[in-house]
Write a structure and sequence with these properties.
heterodimer; A: mainly alpha; two-stranded antiparallel ribbon; two-stranded antiparallel sheet; 10 helices; B: mainly alpha; 2 strands
């Protein structure tokens, strides 16, 4: 439950980030060189210059407000993770249901495809794909392009995890009496799939998509950390950590806050997912 | 089969995706000849690297190199690249395979060292937690494990570097790679931090998996039978309980180790270890197709190999598999 509350808070923070920043911070792309010690390019003041004016201190070199950058980073992180998870769930559910329900050669092809995806050097592959796309493509550019690209990559590579579970569940649901009953009443395949089987899959879909969100958040952070995420100056948590590698000694705040932001978010989703799983599956408790 | 699919997919990414996104052969070639080059030089490079050939021909050339080796015309002369030839880097002009093999010991040391730590700690914690379910130890270790699976290595890595290397000075500089054969002590001292950081994240997952498996196994009938036979509790837990739990743990281990051997990308980037993962990242940021093709193929080969070994180990761990 604690997980759920934290998640609701995080979503509210992400949605109202511009409002919160206008009260408590400074615009995320605004430079404040006067907060930087020119000799060592580090923030002036204790622990990265934390004060009432700059709640999390400032970034080294540029002096941008870390508090507002973390808040804006939450928008990118949650946006990508939600839509990527949605893509995973849609792909995984549809393909898993088709494979489990029809069996035969359809099942063979889809299952092989899942095996291949699962045995792929995923991160290297996602890196290659994210790195090779130019800055203008498919009629989009800038942040819109990068965000849709990341959603596509993360969603497209992670669907087999949920696909396998849905396939297994469909396999056993297919043999149940209510499916036979529906069929003998003359229902066609798509009716059976969507009206009879899908409602019974809601619980596992809910549990596993909640558990997929945190791993997708980590995936997005990893891609940003490796420099193929949403491009600067748009703030991302992974991107901030990548820069913090070089100057954490003079600005520990620059390393700690993005890391803690990732940790809290992922932990909250993991807690909620574990809780949901236990609620739906009394055996796991 | 899998290697074939991986090679096609990698190839498609590097040839078709840039084309779909609207880049020409000359645009691609211009990445490899420096900024000052004029249009003629760029065009010649595109022809020399074969960017104007049909996709099938380019892919055929790559596959041929792997099976029979290729001759490469580098200008002043012709060089032969023997059988498993993954081609030459567009940027450094070095053959790809030896470059990757040179970095293998680093990734191997990192992955195997960490694997030893995480399997021992993860499985032991999981077993003890399951046996003392609800105890203080169980709740504490499962809390830490949940935190462990929620932390990215590029955060814990930097934090541990800041504390143990910079503040306390307990470990050596990770980036200075020293082979085991030269100086085992320095080797271990430099690697201990990546080992522990990496192992912490994995151990968390293994502890959770082992605990869940043990809880299920220990309520099975055959455990009651074993106890009824009067076996010592130690034997019941280790020989009967743990053994059945190990099968899913082994499956996960095969996948994890295979993935890590193909390049611990994040760990190596965080600690600046010059292993295969760092090689992959550099190759990708240079847009160096032969290097990327080579490293993804090698990585996929490791995954396949690890899964094969795990399949064989099933028979050792689970007697039911041997009978089947």
């Amino acid at each position: 439950m604690a997980g759920g509350i934290v998640i609701v808070l995080l979503i509210l923070i992400a949605i109202f980030a511009p409002l919160i920043v206008s009260w408590l911070g400074h615009p995320p792309a605004e430079w404040h060189r006067e907060k930087i010690d020119p000799a060592i390019q580090a923030p002036i003041g204790a622990f990265g210059g934390i004060s009432w004016d700059y709640l999390f201190g400032v970034e080294p070199t540029t002096g941008r407000d870390l508090f507002s950058r973390i808040l804006y980073g939450a928008r990118i992180s949650l946006l990508i993770a939600f839509f990527a998870t949605l893509l995973c769930v849609v792909l995984g559910t549809v393909l898993g249901m088709i494979a489990g329900f029809f069996g035969g050669w359809i099942d063979t092809i889809i299952s092989r495809a899942m095996d291949i995806f699962l045995a792929f050097p995923l991160l290297v592959f996602a890196l290659a794909l994210a790195g090779v796309i130019p800055d203008k493509a498919f009629g989009m550019s800038g942040d819109t392009l990068r965000i849709s690209l990341l959603v596509f990559i993360i969603g497209f590579f992670n669907w087999p995890y949920i696909g396998r579970i849905i396939r297994g569940q469909t396999l056993s649901l297919r043999e149940r009496e209510f499916v036979d009953a529906s069929r003998s009443l003359g229902a066609r395949n798509h009716v059976i799939l969507f009206k009879e089987i899908l409602p019974n899959l809601i619980a596992p879909i809910l549990v596993y998509s909640t558990l997929l969100i945190p791993s997708n958040i980590l995936f997005e952070a990893a891609l940003s950390f490796l420099g193929v995420g949403v491009r600067p100056p748009t703030p991302t948590w992974g991107g901030m950590l990548a820069e913090a590698v070089h100057n954490y000694d003079v600005a520990p705040n620059f390393m700690l806050f993005p890391g803690l932001a990732i940790f809290v978010t992922v932990l909250a989703f993991n807690l909620l997912g574990d809780g949901l799983r236990d609620a739906f599956d009394p055996k796991a408790r | 089969m899998l290697l074939f699919v991986v090679s096609i997919a990698t190839f498609a990414i590097f040839f078709l995706v840039p084309r779909l996104a609207g880049m020409s052969a000359d645009d691609l070639a211009s990445r490899y000849v420096g900024k000052a080059a004029n249009a003629q030089v760029i065009h010649d490079t595109a022809i020399r690297l074969g960017f104007n050939d049909p996709v099938i021909v380019q892919y055929g050339r790559f596959v041929k190199g792997i099976f029979t080796g290729v001759d490469r015309n580098y200008g002043p002369g012709v060089e032969h690249c023997p059988a498993p030839c993954l081609g030459y880097s567009y940027v450094t002009q070095n053959p790809v395979l030896p470059d990757i093999l040179n970095r293998l010991p680093i990734t191997l040391s990192l992955a195997l060292g960490a694997a030893v730590v995480w399997v021992i700690f993860g499985v032991a914690t999981g077993v003890v937690s399951a046996l003392r379910r609800g105890s203080f130890f169980d709740r504490l270790s499962m809390g830490i494990a949940l935190a462990g699976v929620s932390l990215p290595i590029f955060f814990t890595g930097i934090v541990s570097l800041a504390i143990f290397r910079d503040q306390l000075g307990l470990v050596g500089d990770v980036a200075d790679w020293v082979p085991f054969s030269e100086d085992p002590l320095t080797w271990a001292n430099n690697l201990i931090l990546p080992w522990v950081t990496l192992a912490f994240l994995y151990a968390a997952g293994y502890a959770r998996l082992t605990r869940a498996g043990m809880l299920e196994t220990m309520s099975e009938d055959y455990i009651r039978t074993a106890r009824a036979k009067g076996l010592a509790e130690r034997v019941v837990v280790l020989k009967h309980g743990l053994r059945a739990t190990l099968t899913p743990v082994l499956t996960m281990f095969g996948l994890d180790l295979g993935l890590l051997l193909g390049g611990a990308v994040l760990t190596e980037s965080t600690f600046s270890l010059p292993g295969i993962g760092k090689y992959a990242v550099d190759a990708i940021s240079n847009n160096d197709l032969p290097q990327v093709m080579g490293v993804t193929l090698i990585a996929a080969a490791f995954i396949i190999l690890a899964n094969l070994i795990v399949d064989l180990l099933y028979a050792v761990v689970d007697p039911r598999v041997r009978l089947a």
